[in-house]
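Lab notebook: predicted structure, single chain.

Context: the supervisor wants predicted structures on file for every construct in the current expression panel, including those that have not yet been purified. This is the next one on the list. No modifications to the sequence; it matches the entry in the shared construct table.
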Amino acid sequence: MFETFSLSFEKERDAIDVFESVKELTVCTSVNQLYAFFYTPSPPYDATDGWSIYSPREEFGRMGVGSRTKAWRFTDINKDYAFSPTYPSRLVVPTRISDSTLRYASKYRSKCRIPALTYFHWANYGSITRSSQPMVGIKQNRSLQDEKLVEAIFQSHHYPESRPSSGPVYGATSTNLIVDARPTANAVANTAKGAGTENMDNYKDARKYCAKQTT
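Prediction complete. Output recorded below exactly as produced.
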């Protein structure tokens, strides 16, 4: 569904100016024409230290990590990017999982991208974590450390110190879902390359959803 707007102008010159402006903003011939390149914030950002604008600790703290829930903790296991070069330097993982367990679990994930927190709901304690594909392979390999990590994630919203009350919380659910963004055929095909998708026999109390194949 599309919305249609009709604009009326007293002068033809004004109509042409608006048309040209809209065209330039919607049909860009260079990336430098994008809004981000000419937008001026108020007050302006300090351009001398852009890396400090985003703080993982402040952002996850805003969601409630460390205050509303003790089920999650920060880890600096990747502070020098040696643990996983394509992951952030600071990660949020279940409190009950040690860094030693994370190191073992990382061997089971492509490029060591372990399941790590990306979003925490302040009210119902639900979470979204991300990871790379598991290294299942043709032999159906498994990792007890990875399974323990995923289990801790699933149980995080039942953590004793997470809930100040026992009353029902809007949106709360006991359903644990593993989402594979690839079509099932693609995920299974990667098994021949030593990777693949989670064997749900090893991940209890959870369901899996795979994207549908498009034609």
